[in-house]
Design brief:
Length: 365
């Protein structure tokens, strides 16, 4: 009824202010009933409690060694089969050349992610990481989604534990958050039927945390999932994080519709993106950071997201990724200068912090 306050939202606000954890029903209620201003206020409160006025970014570039992939994810605009038009495969020399290209450009991190190539083994990737490490000992190497790791370990018949140990020894510093999609098993059958399941994804991340390798976590949203599925996804992450504290950041990834088999369902609105950032920040109380991956949503919305709990904008990217430009993202050549990132953050009254892969402060502005 108009004029009557929503007691449930007031109760939820009280819990958040007192630092108590929200349960699934609370999370669902926020998604279904909370207004945008309310979500912004609460998400900023949580963000400021965790990271003050800081907003992080880094100097990074991507290498996508191949888009050849054994899987058939219906949201993917990027993968191709062997010999299919549009397929690419970088040689090791190409990859090392790329590493060399960025050596003098003050990049601190390389992010390496690609398709699951049917012929590539753990030995191949181990050699790749070792050679990158030799070429640039100071560069942080964040590489391979749990889906790529799952395949290479099985192909080379090694356990998750041993596989991770070998990659760490070769020079792997961190694991990115891709491949999580949405954990609900029924939905997974519909959008990525033959891909690494939710339990193996979580097991690989847990083993990485135990081995001392920090990881990230993503959630693909805005396709056929319902709010309950997003809450279920975050619950599984929150439980694992309670056990290991090995996740560094949560990265909601907005489904983009161009050039993929799910395209007719369209995309969710910008308001929905902002609401989702806020609920994620409020709900994932044990995640130290929330990232808006700007190449996917555009620079303007990334700026807005800073008023909805986001405290990390990823990096400069240097026009080195194709995953989102092929799926219809606005920016077909994603790159941001340090000045661009700094002024975007400052324009929101927040403080830019250049970080390394492990969120150590390298420089404040
Ligand atoms: O797992 C694929 C997503 C992910 C589409 O860890 C799509 O720092 C939207 O995980 N629309 C790979 N999303 C990228 C990824 C990532 C990106 C940036 C930073 C980090 C990090 C990780 O891209 C896939 C999938 O969820 N994806 N196709 C699409 N059409
Ligand atoms: Fe392959 Fe990743 Fe595309 Fe799925 S999303 S088809 S695993 S490249």
């Amino acid at each position: 009824m108009p004029g009557i306050q929503d007691d449930r939202l007031i109760e939820i606000e009280k819990s958040v202010v007192e630092g108590n954890r929200l349960d699934s029903d609370d999370g669902l209620y926020l998604y279904e009933h909370a207004g945008l201003g309310y979500l912004s206020r609460l998400a900023c409160l949580v963000k400021e409690r965790i990271s003050g006025k800081n907003v992080y970014f880094n100097h990074n570039f991507h290498i996508e060694p191949t888009n050849i992939c054994i899987h058939n994810c219906r949201f993917c605009s990027y993968s191709r089969k062997v010999n299919q038009e549009g397929a690419w495969e970088m040689s090791l020399e190409d990859i090392l050349q790329e590493i060399n290209k960025f050596k003098d450009r003050s990049a601190t991190e390389v992010h390496i992610v690609g398709g699951v190539h049917p012929h590539r083994t753990l030995e191949y990737y181990e050699g790749m990481i070792r050679q990158i490490r030799e070429l640039n000992p100071k560069l942080f190497i964040k590489a391979f989604t749990a889906v790529e790791l799952d395949f290479m370990f099985r192909k080379s018949q090694v356990s998750i534990k041993d596989g991770l140990k070998r990659l760490k020894l070769a020079g792997l510093d961190a694991i990115p958050g891709g491949g999580a999609e949405i954990f609900d098993e029924e939905l997974r059958k519909m959008i990525c039927p033959d891909k690494t399941g939710s339990d193996p994804w979580l097991s690989i991340h847990e083993a990485a945390h135990v081995a001392g390798i920090p990881t990230n976590a993503t959630m693909l949203y805005g396709h056929i999932e319902k709010y309950t599925h997003r809450i279920d996804h975050m619950n599984r992450l929150r439980q694992l994080q309670d056990r290991t504290a090995g996740f560094q950041v949560f990265i909601p990834l907005k489904y983009r519709k161009e050039n993929n088999a799910l395209g007719t369902i369209g995309e969710v609105s910008t308001i929905e993106d902002l609401r989702n950032y806020a609920v994620s920040r409020i709900y994932l109380d044990n995640f130290p950071h929330l990232k808006a991956y700007w190449p996917m949503i555009g620079k303007e919305i990334a700026g807005l997201s800073l008023s909805f709990g986001v405290d990390d904008l990823d990096g400069t990217i240097e026009d080195t990724t194709r995953i989102y430009s092929m799926a219809g993202a606005e920016d077909q050549n994603p790159a941001m200068t340090t000045d661009g990132l700094v002024s975007l953050i400052r324009s929101c009254g927040l403080e830019p912090v250049e970080r390394d892969t492990l969120y150590n402060t390298l420089k404040t502005y």
